[in-house]
Amino acid sequence: MKAMVYEGVETLAVRDVSKPQPSAGQSLVRVSSAGICGSDMHAYLGHDARRPAPLILGHEAAGVIEGGARDGTRVTINPLVSCGTCQACLSGRENLCPERMIISMPPREGAFAQYVAMRDDNLVEVPDAVPLDKAALAEPLAVSWHSARLGLAALDPGATRTALVLGGGAIGLAAALALRAQGIEDVTIAEPNKARRSFLEYQCDEACVPAGTGQYGLVIDAVGYAATRSAASALAEPGGVIVHIGLGEDTGGLDVRRMTLQEITFIGTYAYTPQDFRDTCAAMFDGRLGPLDWTEQRPLSAGPEAFADLRASRVAAPKIILDPWA
Q1: Three-state DSSP class for 237?
Q2: What value does the CA radius of gyration of the chain take, rounded to a whole number of Å?
Q3: Are 212 and 164 within 8 A, CB to CB?
């Protein structure tokens, strides 16, 4: 089969590799659409030790089951697999399982390929009316759904029902959509890239600013750099909540003194639970997350160029979806 293989820092190659063989409890999925995630970009830049070369990246995918009892079923993939028996799993927080694994991390190859093998429990059926390129957005949408859920649960009933999202990429846009679907109407996205800001304003009808000003009850950092953490520290109102999703860099930025004196809650969030993933899919399928028409489609053969374009900030759309069969 054809696959795009990460071979070293800023080096990708589309070539023939062995087709995966599903083991017991798994299905073979013919991948129709696979999205490029920020974590794929981190690996591409050599910033993710969890993803050493050579490796097939990609974990945001949808396709059709090939073979077995569910042959022909259209599915979107929850790429996160947990043990199911530890305290985290038994308490419904499978995303914190110490044995968790995600496709695109060894030993599990990723979805920038024509086929991927996946555990049956991690495959969510997609209605015929939902295109698979939109169904591939389930994973990044679930990340933001989980973050919005935790942030809103921590928000004091007396807090201002306003939210600022730092970063207008796929996770930031998805966070804005998830916040509205979960009851926050006043949401602003801070995005410094002018082309992306224009895309969000005119294609997605989002309220966008170059940088946040004022005070907000809830601030979601979908970037995760010292500069955005500094902004979040300054822009969260007294008694407000900061939700941190981004993994841009590890340290710096937080104004711990202000957060302490103003009793600002900081929540780190990672991935999603299986229930979050299912809830996200339900919200996608019934239209609560909007038309999801903010992606750019390219063939897998153009994947290396897509990564280079993202690296150079030449992409306005929040998400590039690759088609392994185009």
Answers
A1: strand
A2: 19
A3: yes
pTM for this entry: 0.96
Q: Tell me the backbone φ, ψ of residue 239, rounded to 5 degrees.
A: 80, 5
**Structure confidence by residue, pLDDT tens digits, 11-31:** 999 999 999 999 999 999 999
Per-position DSSP letters for 33-92, written without gaps between them = EEEPPHHHHHHHTT--TTSPSSEE---EEEEEEESSTTTT-EEEE--EE--SSSHHHHTT
In terms of Cβ atoms closer than 10 Å to its own Cβ (0-12, 13-18, 19+), residue 129 is: exposed
Tell which of 268, 284, 314 closes a domain. Answer: 268
In the chain, DSSP finds a helix count (H) and a strand count (E) of 10, 18
Beta carbons within 8 Å of 241's beta carbon, 6+ residues apart:
151, 154, 155, 159, 217, 218, 219, 264, 265, 266, 267
Q: Is there a contact between 170 and 245 (Cβ–Cβ < 8 Å)?
A: no
pLDDT tens digit sequence for 260-283: 999 999 999 999 999 999 999 999
Count up the domains in the chain and report the number: 2
3 state DSSP class of 220? strand
The C-alpha atoms of residue 62 and residue 77 are separated, in whole angstroms, by: 6
Say how many C-beta atoms besides its own lie within 10 A of residue 91's C-beta: 10
Tell me the Ramachandran region of residue 88: left when phi exceeds 0, alpha when psi lies from -120 to 50, beta otherwise. Answer: alpha
CA distance 315 to 279: 29
User: Which tokens belong to 117?
Assistant: 């093998």
* Domain limits for position 243: 141-268
Separation CA 201–CA 10 (nearest Å) = 31
Residues 152 and 132 in one domain: no
Structure tokens at 146: 């989980």
